[in-house]
Structures are given as C-alpha cells and as structure tokens.
C-alpha cells in the first residue's frame, strides 16, 4: 500500500512541475478610462470666452503587460447613448497609447453647442486585435456639454458675505474677465481677497469714468470685500 501512495504522489509532483514549466502568455491588453462613467464631466463654454472650440485632456490607463511599442486604440461617440452628434466633438481615427506607460492622456476637441445642452458618451473600442476595452464601468466617459453657467459651489455664504456679495451671471463674467480666474475652489482666503479687491478696484475705476457697471437688477454692481 505504501508503494501505491508513493507512486501517486510522484505522479502529482511531476504533473505540478510540468505545469510550472509551461510559460503562460497573455497577448491581449486592455485600455480604459481612469475614472468610471459615473464620474461624469460638466464642461461649459461659458468659461472660455468667445471660443468656438476647446481641447480638454482625459486620462486613460492600460491593464496587462507594458506595451513595448506604441499601440493604437479607438474612441467612439456612442450615438445610442448620446444626445450629442458628430458636430459637437472631433475624434481622430485612432489614438496612440505610448509604450512603457501605465497611464496616458488623450485630447478631446469639443465644439461650442450654442444654446443646446448635450450629453457626450464616449466608448473605448480597443483596436480589434491585441488591445481591447477594459472593465465595463471604465469603458465609457460621459461629458455634459453646454454654454450655460450656474452658481458655482464655491460661491457659498462666506464668499457672499466676505468677498463678492450676491451672485449674478454678469458679476461672475466680470470676475473672470478682470482676474482671469473663475474657480475659487482651492484658493485660500488671502488669494480670494486679492481677487475680490481686483474686481472692486475695477468697479471703482469705471465709476470714476462715469461708466458705472450695472448688475442684473439695474443697480451699480458691488462687492462686499473690505479694502
């Protein structure tokens, strides 16, 4: 009986060694967006002045072995899921994922939608050969495109009380024009104060020229920053 056990064990070990010596190669790689489709992007041409076309970066990543050569892959507008059309976005025939990179960046060229608000749903299609689309939740990128503007989250009670006063679209537009900055999300209090003062001094300068800047209520535009 012992000899039988030894024989069975020997066969098992030989089989295990044989499997370990078989090289396992996965010739397929996967490319996907770095964020899931739930992390949609809101892009408004409001922040780009009179621009009719803008270019934005979007990060992609690969799964598998590093590419030893550049690899092409396709990104398409999913027309079944989008309200946008080809006139809203310019996509190349293919993008290139650079060799020896785990992450890379592609550029999306977007066209001003005018008064419309459209949803762009992009889908990674791979290249049909050795590059495929990655995980389902990362295959798609959703972009909400418009020329609209709504009160930004950073324009809260503190900003209203200490820096800019009541929000209005004309005031927001002028703030961007005067300071060149339209996003205060990560600005500290001293920087916010400096920008608010820039706007205040501009309003004062225009008043001295008898060219008072009016707000939406027809009254002179004001800010609340002290200085």
UniProtKB/TrEMBL annotation:
Pfam families reported for this sequence: DUF4843
Superkingdom of the organism of origin: Bacteria
InterPro entries in the record: DUF4843
Record protein name field: DUF4843 domain-containing protein
Organism: Butyricimonas hominis
